Amino acid sequence: MLNGFLYGTTASGGTYNDGTVFRLRPTGGQKALLYSFKGGNDGANPVANLLAVDGKLFGTTQSGGADGEGTVFRIDPNGKEMVLHSFGNQLDGAQPMAGLALSRGVMYGTTYAGGVLNYGTVFRITRGGAERVLHSFLSGYSFATDGGHPVASLTAIAGLLYGTTPTGGKNAAGILFTISAKGVEKILYDFNGSLPNAREPHAPLLLFNGTFYGTAGGGANDYGAVYSIQPDGTNETLLHSFGSGSFDGRNPAAGLTALNGKLYGTTADGGANGAGTIYRLTQGSIETVLHSFGTGPPHDGSNPEAGLTLVNNALYGTTAGGGTAGQGTVFAFRP
């Protein structure tokens, strides 16, 4: 949210079909296309959220840039874009799939690939574009139990950064880690690779009332799960297994949002129409499906893969499909 508008990205479309940045007014839904990515030395195919800092928006593209391995870019509310960093040079990261996090005035992010062994990195970058790799993941290296291929945004708390990887670790099912601003990494938890445990997390962590909450694969039905864990990596608890009923959601691809003491999220599949859901989870681990996508007319969205954004007690999100043109929607949901 910036200057009364919601901002987002699309992975494709636009003038060159390499993705866009768009602006939307929450009241009324008027949309404006701010920028079309060009590929080549410009970025291409943004798949992550934008970070608002000092009146400008910062984001990542999965591809494009000088070396074709993605970028960090800056764009102002009028649509003027600048590539701050192109990934892929020597031991740099490559293919960032997550958005940026701000900690004490510096931005941090992850790349899915690149680094010393091509298992991804954690990097820092200033608002002027000075980038440095803080950590190269070592999953797959002989005797290494590090994670690999991070796809979720980092969570910044008190100068430390917390994140997850969907691969690597002692059980090859992903890890929860913390890393300092100087690049000192510590593995806090190794996800269990066997059912009914949560495993292979793809979504960012939410700190709520002193506890981390997240979504992952696995669960009792192998359709995904919601879990909680303490910030020191102890007391990991399975809160909900998706697919437990014929109308329950399946495959949560996004993280959680807190509102009025409850947690809200989306699933990419499942629900009454098989096109995904919006769900609510109480602290007592009682899950309720609030909306099943794919209903219509009118042309409801389908298959939400991104998290929900809270603005004035309403939750805003996007769907990957559905809508009038079948190319996705932006929606508002008021619990």
Low-confidence segments, given as residue ranges, are: none
Class from secondary-structure proportions: mainly beta
How many DSSP helices? 0
Shape: globular
In whole angstroms, how far apart are the ends?
20 Å
* Radius of gyration over all CA atoms, rounded: 19 Å
Q: Sketch the major β-sheet.
A: 5 strands, antiparallel
Helix content: under 10%
DSSP strand tally: 37
- Mean pLDDT metric: 95
Provide the β-strand percentage band: over 45%
How is this structure best described in words?
- With 335 residues, the chain is an all-beta fold.
- It contains no helices and 37 strands.
- The strands form 12 sheets. Strands 22, 23, 24, 25 and 26 form a 5-stranded antiparallel β-sheet that branches. Strands 5-6-8-9 form a 4-stranded antiparallel β-sheet, with no helix packed on it. A 4-stranded antiparallel β-sheet has the order 11-12-14-15, with no helix packed on it.
- A hairpin with a 5-residue loop joins strand 8 (71-75) and strand 9 (81-86).
- It is globular.
- The two termini are 20 Å apart.
